[in-house]
Design goal:
Its main location: other. This protein is of the alpha+beta class. It is 22% helix and 18% strand. The protein has ten helices and nine strands. Strands 1, 2, 3, 4, 5, 6, 7, 8 and 9 form a nine-stranded antiparallel β-sheet that branches. Bound molecules: protoporphyrin IX containing FE.
């Protein structure tokens, strides 16, 4: 935690200032241990607290999942490498401020009266809300239409592959790809939206939003002790997920290794916008719904077991049950950290909800994580009720160190 992050915001109460100082110590110690942990000493409680922006790993991956998402993918519109790096530095300063609950630059109502304010203002007075901002670089940043745009072609990590076509995909190119992605998660949607909006504003002339997605109701948890959230099909989602306490498993399955150059300590993000056919599902019997997942709808226990956390017996599930096909034992031990959100973007003009799961998975190598698991899901009984309509893959670098900035390893 930097001094700047511990700085009080205007209007902050003394009690809260003390809370933040205590939190700074907590975060500082945890960041030293490479844990990127949460500052929870704030008087607003966990939901209002600040999460350390700097550390060995980026926050927003293994840190506890917040309630809301604003995900945005940007196209780089300049061919000026230096200008792009300058913007990434400006983004880093803004991200450090916003995640600490401070406004960007001079704030919303200070500075020159004849220029637009540095901050757009809609988060003034709101707590940090556990905002995390996680950046990733898409394959097209390294090479687009055969062109080495920024001299980065040789820096493209081998694991940043173009995702193959999967059976059933109906991908909309306007809801996929992008040179740079930012995942903003917070407990208050206004805080997440404010963060993306201000990054887009700072990036004007350098980047343009290509596509974005709002999400609510986290569909996975990285804190196994917390109550497991439910997805829009009404099932507990995220029971068997990797969490912040699984340090050895995170090292093995989520963090890129030392051999991965500038990506060491980073992770690969796969995003899939998955439409869920809610109306068809709602006409499906309870038994069939439970057979499809291989878990009960109430307690969330695996078929033939009693409690949610009981070990699944895959052989007892139908051969095409989702959990059976996605389980590490069916995929040579492949594991991913799921961090998705539900979405409902109104209705589709045919009287159906335009709803689904914005699936996000982090892994140390998508060739050993998302890709084989998704291939195994080709025969998933769930496929009758869902369709993948958007897709992206991004290399998320390690955390920003003191004095460093987003992309410093890549552009070094
Ligand atoms: C709309 C689409 C999806 C829905 C509604 C859904 C729902 C669920 C539910 C309810 C569970 C059981 C509880 C749990 O352990 O979390 C589960 C487990 C799981 N899902 Fe999905 N899922 C979807 C898509 C996917 C995709 C695209 C993948 C990866 C390619 C995936 C990978 C997994 C994994 C790895 C597990 C844990 C299996 C285990 O170890 O027991 N899911 N999912």
């Amino acid at each position: 935690m930097t001094g700047e992050q511990a700085e009080a915001r205007p209007g902050m109460s003394r009690r809260r200032m003390l809370g933040f100082s205590g939190a700074s110590l907590l975060v500082g110690a945890a960041a030293g241990a490479g844990l990127d942990r949460v500052a929870s000493a704030d008087e607003d409680g966990a939901a209002g607290a600040a999460i350390a922006f700097r550390g060995a790993h980026q926050a927003g991956i293994a840190t506890p999942v917040q309630d809301r998402l604003h995900f945005a993918a940007f196209d780089v519109t300049t061919d000026d490498r230096d200008r792009l790096v300058r913007m990434l530095k400006e983004w880093t300063d803004a991200a450090a401020a916003m995640t600490a609950g401070r406004p960007v630059g001079n704030g919303a109502a200070a500075g020159s009266p004849v220029a637009p304010p540095d901050d757009t203002g809609e988060a003034v007075g709101l707590p940090p809300s556990r905002l995390t901002l996680t950046i990733g670089f898409g394959p097209s940043l390294f090479e687009k239409d055969g062109e080495d745009r920024f001299g980065l072609r040789a820096r493209r990590p081998a694991a940043l592959v173009d995702l193959p076509h999967f059976p059933g995909d109906d991908l909309d190119p306007d809801r996929g790809g992008g040179d740079i992605a930012v995942q903003a998660c917070a407990d208050d949607p206004q805080v997440a939206v404010h963060a993306i909006r201000n990054l887009a504003r700072i990036g004007f002339g350098v980047v343009a939003v290509r596509w974005s997605q709002l999400g609510f109701g986290k569909t996975s948890s990285t804190t196994p002790d917390a109550q497991t959230p439910r997805n829009l099909f009404g099932f507990k989602d995220g029971t068997d997920n990797l969490g912040e306490s699984d340090k050895a498993l995170l090292d093995e399955h989520v963090w890129a290794g030392k051999g991965d150059g500038w990506m060491a300590g980073g992770s690969y993000l796969v995003a899939r916008r998955i439409r869920m056919h809610i109306e068809t599902w709602d006409r499906t019997s309870l038994r069939e719904q439970e057979d499809i997942f291989g878990r009960g709808k109430g307690e969330g226990a695996p078929v033939g077991r009693e409690k949610e956390r009981d070990k699944p017996v895959l052989a007892r599930m139908k051969p095409d049950a989702h959990v059976r096909l996605a389980h590490p034992d069916s995929n040579h031990g492949a594991r991913i950290l799921r961090r998705g959100y539900s979405f409902t973007d109104g209705s589709d003009g045919l009287g159906r909800l335009e709803a689904g799961l914005f699936f996000i998975a982090f892994q140390s190598d998508p060739r050993k994580g998302f890709i084989p698991v998704q291939q195994s899901l080709a025969t998933d009984a769930l496929n009758e009720y869902i369709q993948h309509v958007g897709s992206g893959i991004y290399a998320c670098p390690p955390g920003v160190r003191e004095g460093g900035h987003w992309g410093d390893g890549l552009f070094a």
